[in-house]
Amino acid sequence: MTSDNEHEHDTTQDTPAQPDGSHGVNHDDSRGSGNGRGNGSAGRNSSSNGDSNSNEHHDHHHWLHDLTNKHNPIRIVVIVLIWIIVIASLGLFGWITFEPNLPASGLKQQNMVSANGNGYTDAQASPQPSSSSSPQDKKHESLKEELEATPTTTTPQQQAQQAVEHMSLEEQAGQLVMAPLTAGTEPSTLEPMIKDRHLGSILLLGNWDSGIAGVRQATTTLQQYVNDNIPMFIATDQEGGAVQHLTGSGFTTIPSARQQGQMSDDKLMTSAEQWGQQLRQAGVNIDLAPSLDTVVIDRSSNAPIGALDRDFGLSAKGNAQHGIAFVEGMRKADVGATIKHYPGLGAVTGNTDFTADGTVDTVTDVNSIQLQAFNNAIAQVNPAMVMISLGIYENLDPNVPAAFSSYIINTVLRDSTGYDGVVISDSLSAQAVKGYVPADLGTKFIQAGGDIVCLSDLSMVGPVLDGIVYQAQNSPDFANLVKASAKRVLTLKYEMHLIEKN
């Protein structure tokens, strides 16, 4: 590299600029001073030695005068040679000392973490690379390589899309099934299914009374069976009251949802965070709670919810606010919460877990207060999952259970609220859907817009997976639905940073 002054030579100067930027002594001035005095002195001395010495000196003086003459060809050649030497020296100096001044958006920009706005703990930013000096002829190539290697910001959706594109159909299908592990059953029972069928989720059922340490041992073992580097969701129903599967040392006895409804929002949020921390310590990352059902009939006759105090016991607005507090508290503990049972079980008399009788809702429609609690919560807190009930809703879709209704899932839920998260079914092992062939259960749910098939009967996992894979192999449209659902599931896993943390 050279300075601007070095590119523009002043023809009134006889020496080029020096490498440090200073200029040499003017030759015209030197001839009138130093050189002139020196030559005159030489002339006086030589005259006393005779004519021959005088002539010899005269010739020598004439040669020096000619050499310093601006129009002398020899002088021009010498100047050009000096210029070449100086420029070569400056170039070498630049090669040694030059460091590229990189833009702030380039090499020195630190990797950004995913800005997903979901409130889960962010992953650590990647360390930034450092710049180094390089030879001039390699500088541009090196800079290009370093800039291309600079980490870029990606969203959870983009990460999920990239992951799904590299998955086989069987791997995608596995992400859409939640298989049960009942208390007392060895985790190794699920090892072949996790490894060979690529299960994406596990549901802990029964009475796990071994405390945090016992549950943690089981969940750690389960995650070790994963061979595709995509950790599983491990879920349970930790609602409180009559529905709390994990107990023992380290687990708080959680009050019923109706008792939680008597707490302030802040108190409930703080309590939910504590309960969530206990789940997280036990290796559980999804809580299938809270219930946002608004009971609109006599509580004692509302078998699945009111009779068990599984609701907050408030108005639709109050239920929404308490549901939001619960979800936020769990999220602070890095546990995903699930609002259920959309569009509500507060107007039925039968419990879908045990019967198909009395599970038809004749009250709820698109303007019902049943939906208000869910819609308000979704708008304000965007829960990790929404669970769809197995009830039939005459004023919404009278032909099929909600879990198999595209109108309820896609139009009433997704389109009207803008919710694009994971939709999970209530257990499709329940009595309410016993009339369906097991291989059809998963396909019907996914065709309706659902994502994760929840099962409480281990023997049904294989047939459900087989049905999903078979349908996708024979229908490109269904294969696209499988891929879209797998992307939503993986997006949530990236949002929750499960991959970085496990």
UniProtKB/TrEMBL annotation:
Residues 169-492 form the Glycoside hydrolase family 3 N-terminal domain. Signal peptide: none annotated. This is beta-N-acetylhexosaminidase. The chain crosses the membrane at residues 76-98. Keywords: Glycosidase, Hydrolase, Membrane, Transmembrane, Transmembrane helix. Residues 42-53, 123-135, 149-163 have a biased composition (Low complexity). GO terms for biological process: carbohydrate metabolic process; peptidoglycan turnover. Residues 1-12, 136-147 have a biased composition (Basic and acidic residues). It catalyses: Hydrolysis of terminal non-reducing N-acetyl-D-hexosamine residues in N-acetyl-beta-D-hexosaminides. InterPro entries: GH, Glyco_hydro_3_N, Glyco_hydro_3_N_sf, NagZ_Beta-hexosaminidase. It comes from the Bacteria. GO terms for molecular function: beta-N-acetylhexosaminidase activity. It holds the Pfam family Glyco_hydro_3.
